[in-house]
């Protein structure tokens, strides 16, 4: 296996782990990182980008292991445990249905620099707008207080994250805050909602290229393994930090970062177009 390719896989894993749960769009960062590293825009690489997401999901299981094990162990006796699982499934449903229906169209029409740049900038402006609200009191201060309707609304917000550059976590966190969740609860539910969403997306993408992966297992498996492990480690650090951050800070710095990053992507896209025209 090419050592340089493994290093590139590790870099992609770091980017995935650090951006998956922040409101900054992991997809947008992975697209740019892939281009900067000179990695091919192939079906296998697309599957790789999705397949390393479960590494980030594993970080959620580790950080929340006590709550997850308690919830699953008390499904028969605890109404709150059943309610949490039901809310996660309800929140996952819109993305499962809509994503399955329009996934090909999104890949075909929306994966380009203009869309990514616009989504970054617009998303940043929306975060600034939401965080600038005054005298708006959150209605839900604990995840057990969420209703099925809350979960469904956040689930529809998550669908906006299908647009490259929008950010799944940003859509669910900011959407959750608009629904009435306080910032820590919105962040926590976004973490839990990521579990079925990202695992489902990973299984679907890997299934699409299963024959090519099987035919070149010795070449691809080490790359996938390195990306998975590094993604887990980076996400574990990021999730622990973010939980502390949201308890005392707003998402305004991420909004300005999104706007600046979007401008860079826009400038890069325009430069490439001029170069192509020459």
What attributes characterize this protein structure?
mainly alpha; about 280 residues; 13 helices
Sequence-ordered SSE layout with sheet pairings:
Blueprint: H1 3-19, H2 26-37, H3 43-51, H4 53-63, H5 65-73, H6 79-109, H7 113-131, H8 148-159, H9 168-179, H10 183-208, H11 210-215, H12 217-246, H13 252-277
What would your notes on this structure say?
The protein is mostly helical and about 280 residues long. It has one domain. It has 13 helices and no strands.
Summarize the structure.
By secondary structure, this protein is an all-alpha fold.
Report the β-strand fraction as a percent range: under 5%
Helix proportion range: over 70%
The tally of domains stands at: 1
Q: Count the beta strands.
A: 0
Radius of gyration: 19 Å
Q: How would you spell out the order of helices and strands?
A: HHHHHHHHHHHHH
Given the structure, what is the number of helices? 13
Described by the principal axes of the CA atoms, the overall outline is globular
């Amino acid at each position: 296996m090419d050592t340089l390719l493994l290093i590139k896989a590790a870099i992609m894993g770091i980017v995935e782990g650090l951006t998956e749960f922040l409101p900054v769009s992991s997809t947008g960062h992975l697209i740019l990182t892939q281009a900067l590293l000179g990695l091919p825009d192939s079906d296998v690489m697309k599957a790789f980008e999705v397949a390393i997401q479960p590494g980030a999901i594993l970080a959620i299981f580790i950080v929340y292991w006590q709550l997850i094990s308690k919830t699953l162990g008390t499904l028969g006796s605890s109404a709150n445990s059943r309610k949490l699982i039901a809310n996660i499934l309800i929140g996952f449903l819109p993305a499962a249905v809509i994503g399955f229906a329009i996934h090909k169209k999104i890949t075909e029409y929306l994966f380009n620099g203009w869309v990514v740049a616009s989504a970054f900038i617009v998303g940043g402006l929306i975060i600034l707008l939401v965080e600038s609200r005054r005298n708006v009191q959150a209605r839900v201060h604990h995840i057990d207080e969420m209703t099925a309707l809350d979960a469904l609304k956040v689930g529809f917000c998550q669908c906006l994250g299908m647009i490259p550059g929008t950010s799944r976590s940003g859509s669910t966190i900011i959407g959750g805050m608009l629904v009435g969740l306080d910032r820590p609860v919105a962040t926590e539910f976004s973490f839990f909602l990521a579990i079925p969403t990202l695992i489902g997306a990973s299984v679907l993408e890997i299934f699409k290229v299963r024959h090519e992966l099987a035919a070149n297992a010795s070449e691809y498996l080490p790359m996938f393994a390195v990306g998975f492990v590094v993604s887990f480690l980076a996400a574990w650090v990021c999730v622990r930090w973010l939980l502390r951050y949201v308890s005392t800070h707003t998402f305004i710095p991420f909004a300005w970062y999104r706007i600046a990053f979007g401008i860079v992507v826009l400038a890069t896209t325009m430069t490439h177009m001029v170069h192509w025209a020459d």
